# Entry
Amino acid sequence: MNQALNYKNGMSLGWRLCFILSLFATIPRLIFVWPSLFSSDNFGSGLLDICIQFIISFEFAWIFVYICLHYTYQMPSWFNRQNPWVQALLLILLFLSINEILFQLKIALDANHSDMLIFRVVYYLYHLLLLLAIVGFRNFLLTTQENHKIGLENEQLKREQLKAQLEALRNQLNPHFLFNALNILNISIATNPQLAQNIVLDLSDILRYNLKVQNQSLILLTDELAAARAYLDLYKARFGEKMTFEFVDTETTKQWYIIPLSLQILIENAIKHNVMSSSQVLFIEVRLNEKEKQVIVMNTLNKKMNSGGTGIGLQNLDKRYKIQTGQKPSLIEDEQQFTVKVPLIEAP
# Structure
C-alpha cells in the first residue's frame, strides 16, 4: 500500500472522525440549551446555537486533521518542508489564531455575552480536547500502517521461505541428483561398504533436515552446519578429487541462529556455476567468524560458460535476510574466488 493510498484512506477516516468529534463537542451545548428547545419563543435560537457549535467544531477538527494527514504521510507541502521547531511554532500559532477567530465568530452570532472569560476558557478547552483526539487518531493511523507493513513483510517472508524450501527440495529430488547419489551408492556397496553407508546417512540427514525446517524461520547454526557438511559429503562422493572442502573454526559454544538452507543454497550455487576437473579443483571453505557475527562461504572461481542458473537462490536468500533481520549477505567476487558473508543472528 503506497503513501497516496494510505493518505486517501486516512482522509476517508478523517471526515468521519471530524463528524464524530463535532457531535461530542456539541453535546454540552445541547444540554445547556435543551430547556429552550421546548419553548416556542426560543426554539429557533436554541437550534441555531447547536448548529453553530457543530459547524465551528467541525471546521476546527477538519483543519487539524488535514494538517495531521499531510504530515503523517509526508505529502508534498510547504509545511512538511519546514524544520520541526518551525512546524511546532506554526501549529501553536495556528491553534491560537483559529480558536480566536472561531470564538469571535461565535460571539458575533450569539446574543448572550455574559461570563465571557469563563466561556473563552471552556471554548479553548473544548478545542484542546479535540486536538488531543486528533493526535490519538494520528497514532492510530501510524500503528495501523505499521501493523499492515509487518503483515505484508511476514507474508513476503513466508513466500520467500517456501520458494527456498521448494528450490532446495527440487535440487535434492532432481533426477540427476538422485541418480548420481544412487549410482555412487550402487558402486560403493561392493567396493566400499563404509562409503555406501555414509551416503545413505547423508542423504537421509539432508532430506530429514529439509522437512524439519519447513515451518521454521530460524535454525541453529550447528544444525545448518551439520546439514551443509552432509550435503558436501554427498558431492564429494560424486566428484572425488575434483572437489574439496573445509570447515574452519565452526566449533562454537554459543547459540547462533541462521536462516534455514542458507549454506545449502551457497554450496549449490558454487557447484552449479563452476567447472570441476582434475586440473581445476573446486575448493569450498565454510568459516565461522564470531567476532564479526558472520559465517563465510568461499569458493574458488572457474565459471562455466553456460551454467543455466539465474541466481534465484542468492536473490531469495538476500530478500529473506532483508525482511527478517534488516541485514543482507555481502557478496565479494574477484578473479580467483567468490565469497558470501552471511549474518549470524543471536538467540531470538
The CA atoms of residues 143 and 149 lie 10 Å apart. The beta strands are 219-220, 243-248, 257-258, 282-289, 294-300, 330-333, 337-343.
